[in-house]
Amino acid sequence: MKHDLILAGAGLANGLIAWRLKQLRPELRVLCIEQQAGIGGNHTWSFHDGDLNPAQHQWIAPLVVHRWPCYDVHFPARSRRLSSGYASVTSERFVKVIGAALGDDLRTGQTIVQVSPRSVSLASGERLVADAVIDGRGVKESRHLVLGRQAFLGQLLQLQAPHGLEAPIIMDARVAQGEGYRFVYVLPFTPDTVLVEDTHYVDRHALSGERLRANISEYVREQGWTVAACLREEQGVLPITLAGDFASFWDEAEGQPRSGLRAGLFHCTTGYSLPHAVRLADWIAQRRNLDAESLATGMRAFAHQAWRRQRFYRLLNRMLFLAGRPQDRWQVMQRFYGLSEGLISRFYAGDSSLWDKLRVVSGKPPVPVKEAMHAMLRYLPRHYENRE
User: Fold this and answer.
1) What is the torsion angle, in degrees rounded to the nearest 10, for the CA atoms of residue 308, residue 205, residue 34 and residue 301?
2) How many angstroms separate the Cα of 320 from the Cα of each of 124, 132, 141, 361, 375?
3) Is residue 42 classed exposed, middle or buried when 0-12, 13-18 and 19+ CB atoms within 10 A define those classes?
4) Is residue 202 part of a domain?
5) Closest to 16 (Cα-Cα) out of 98, 92, 132
6) Which pLDDT tens digits describe the chain residue by residue (388 residues)?
7) Are residues 40 and 149 in the same domain?
8) 240 touches 148 (CB < 8 A)
9) Distance between CA atoms of 376 and 267, rounded to whole angstroms?
10) How many domains does the chain have?
């Protein structure tokens, strides 16, 4: 059987594409293939209200497990509550909603050995063909991207008593710093259930799971909480882009439609990928032609536009990673969270205005001036950033 579209990988991006096509174009023959036993992995994806438009909020709503009207941040010299709404999607809800919607159009536990623009070969020897194949199997290392790392481990904890939190804590940087910017991320899902995530912005990931779990235990004790049970644990390393040669990055798999992290579709600084995945799903659902050539050309242009819009954020990342001592990187974020709520909201949405950018870099930087300038200019002269 020939399909109209095959989605290789059933993570966030491809799962949303398949689900959106089911909603808007149910006549299409779409097959989603996942190597793992289930879809969506083991993740919590979050987003800010300003990241999506009203229509996108409406169609993504069945996946949202909790919404909060505000969020908090804490730094050694600044604590602040921001009025921007915040929401989270979990893998469990993702499986429940999207897995049920796809039904027989989803195949899990299938080892993929080769992907081409129009076919997928499985370890079983089976070869599946389609008008187009979208490769969404997660991030792939590339010599054409200069990356930092956001390494994290999170635990969903059942507490013996209510935690007392009214809002999520997006960043609590009042913790001991290390070889990079460290903060704790806290999502209070119920009065006595909370996700606590130890997060590190580092040049390379060398943190053991044991160390991250110990950090969480220490943070929980400092809050005065007592753990009744750990309900779930998630761990990962997200790419933080400092610079790159976009054309060469996409040329690595010439003619291959790509989605999600494999396409470079994520916020360069925060690592958030859900808003990009929602926009891509909408874009694909509105395409008249879903043949491999049209999709490859169109998706490359879609990703290129997102890449260009984030050039300023990559500059900020270079300041964060390359200027000053690693243990002092928190000062950059502390200063950022002293700016206006509108500017911060537009930053997360990837929609910073020229005035926003000027405001972010104006004044005395929270890192040595000479090192800040060197970091901003690094990677620019030759192969990076000048091939937009």
Assistant:
1) 10
2) 46, 39, 21, 12, 9
3) middle
4) yes
5) 98
6) 799 999 999 999 999 999 999 999 999 999 999 999 999 999 999 999 999 999 999 999 999 999 999 999 999 999 999 999 999 999 999 999 999 999 999 999 999 999 999 999 999 999 999 999 999 999 888 999 999 999 999 999 999 999 999 999 999 999 999 888 999 999 999 999 999 999 999 887 778 999 999 999 999 999 999 999 999 999 999 999 999 999 999 999 889 999 999 999 999 999 999 999 999 999 999 998 999 999 999 999 999 999 999 999 998 888 888 777 788 889 889 999 999 999 999 999 999 999 999 998 887 655 555 555 555 555 554 445 444 4
7) no
8) yes
9) 18
10) 3
Helix, strand, or coil here: 54? helix
- Residue 83 belongs to a domain: no
The boundaries of the domain holding residue 353 are 312-377
Q: Quick one: 24 and 101 in the same domain? A: yes
Q: For residues 112 and 96, is the Cβ–Cβ distance under 8 A?
A: no
Diameter of the chain measured on Cα atoms: 63
Of 261, 285, 309, the domain-final residue? 309
Dig out the tokens for 216 from the structure.
């969480």
Read off the pTM.
0.93
Angle at 47 between CA 35 and CA 267, to 5 degrees: 75
Taking residue 18's Cβ as centre, other Cβ atoms within 10 Å add up to: 27
* Separation of alpha carbons 373 and 388, rounded Å: 21
